[in-house]
């Protein structure tokens, strides 16, 4: 008599609660919080740049001539608008809204690009913003526990 195999033949179903998915799902929750907080901070940065044109100064001694040099009022508007949209998307991620994941990936990419261009004005905060944006992109792309087509 042959005994039946202890497991069914064929491909194994994906592990819904494996350690990778737990990290990714937790990362998605953290990404939502990061986007909400970063968006609010972006709004505050934007208001500061719009209210006082001298609050962010480009250090020509450190950078020389910078290709992406904009007026700080223009940077203020960029940060303000991007901050409002990023915060709204972070709130959408926390609520589990379907559009928020795709929008979060796109906005985090724009956030990384904006902070790269912002490097000479606030180098430490720009590097932190780039790192946070990369983490948000990773977490939103790898979480398959709540797959949104």
Judging from the principal axes of the Cα atoms, what is the shape? elongated
Strand portion: under 5%
Main pleated-sheet profile: none
Instruction: Write the element-wise H/E pattern from the N-terminal end onward.
Output: HHHHH
Helical content class:
55-70%
Gyration radius from CA atoms, angstroms: 21 Å
Oligomer: single chain
Q: Report, as a whole number of angstroms, the end-to-end distance.
A: 47 Å
Q: Enumerate the spans where pLDDT stays under 50 for 5 or more consecutive residues.
A: 12-16
Structural class: mainly alpha
Mean pLDDT: 78
Total helices: the number is 5
Number of strands: 0
Q: How would you summarize this macromolecular structure in one to three sentences?
A:
The protein contains 5 helices and no strands. It has 149 residues and is mostly helical. The chain starts with 18 loop residues before the first helix and ends in a 7-residue tail after the last helix.
């Amino acid at each position: 008599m042959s005994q039946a195999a202890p497991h069914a033949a064929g491909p194994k179903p994906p592990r819904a609660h494996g350690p990778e998915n737990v990290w990714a799902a937790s990362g998605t929750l953290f990404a939502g919080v990061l986007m909400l907080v970063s968006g609010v901070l972006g709004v505050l940065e934007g208001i500061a740049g719009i209210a006082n044109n001298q609050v962010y100064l480009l250090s020509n001694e450190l950078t020389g001539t910078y290709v992406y040099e904009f007026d700080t009022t223009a940077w203020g508007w960029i940060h303000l608008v991007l901050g409002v949209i990023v915060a709204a998307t972070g709130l959408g991620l926390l609520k589990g809204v379907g559009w928020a994941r795709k929008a979060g990936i796109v906005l985090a990419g724009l956030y990384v690009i904006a902070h790269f261009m912002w490097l000479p004005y606030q180098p430490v905060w720009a590097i932190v913003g780039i790192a946070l944006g990369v983490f948000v992109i990773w977490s939103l792309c790898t979480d398959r526990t709540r797959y949104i087509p």
